[in-house]
Amino acid sequence: MPSNRPRPRLGLVAVLVAIALGLAACTAPAAPSSSSPASGLVASASAGNISGVALAGPVCPVERPGDSACAARPVGGAVIVVTRPDGSEVTRVTTAPDGRFNLNLAPGSYVLVPQPVEGLLGTAPSIPIAVGPAGQPAPSSSPVIVDYDTGIR
Q1: End-to-end CA distance of the chain
Q2: For the whole model, what pTM was predicted?
Q3: Alpha-carbon distance 93 to 79, whole Å?
Q4: SS3 assignment, position 145
């Protein structure tokens, strides 16, 4: 038998949180930008010097090509853990205020594992890298781009 008591109402905040969580679960991860140099597999120079930059975007709800106000912003203070393919930690680096970082690694295979940054959605995708033996030229001198998502849509 139904009760005549009034049903409790969810507060506006609870409804908004539920909607946000639902949308976040349905959102596909952002595809790497075609303008992001060296995203993905990267081979370094013979010294094993890996340079990179952590960026967060989008910063505008509607991005317009060439609009510098909507350019991805650097992520300072981001921690990037370097692991071997088996997951064992090799080292970690924290990005400078301009988002840049440098690593010097011995020849071998590694994975850059960006850690969560407060205020950004989730984490940036992991990036496998390969450091070639001494004397082997690098196929690309572009920095590694660590792409964080701001959650702006």
Answers
A1: 46
A2: 0.66
A3: 6
A4: strand
**Position with higher pLDDT, 31 vs 48:** 48
Contacts of 18 (CB under 8 A, 6+ apart): 10
Residue 148 CB partners (closer than 8 Å, separation 6+) = 54, 55, 56, 57, 75, 78, 114, 117, 120, 121, 123, 124
Decide if 60 contacts 85 (C-beta within 8 A): no
Residue 27 has a CB neighbour count (10 Å cut-off) of 13
- Count of Cβ atoms closer than 10 Å to residue 23 Cβ: 11
Contact between 123 and 115 (Cβ < 8 Å):
yes
Q: What is the mean pLDDT of residues 106-117?
A: 95
For the cut 50, the answer to whether the pLDDT of residue 24 exceeds it is: no
Amino acid at 56: A
Per-residue pLDDT, 52: 96
> Rounded to an integer, what distance in angstroms lies between the CA atom of residue 45 and that of residue 6?
70
Which residues touch 70 (CB under 8 Å, ≥6 apart)?
58, 59, 60, 63, 64
CA–centroid distance for 71 within its chain: 15
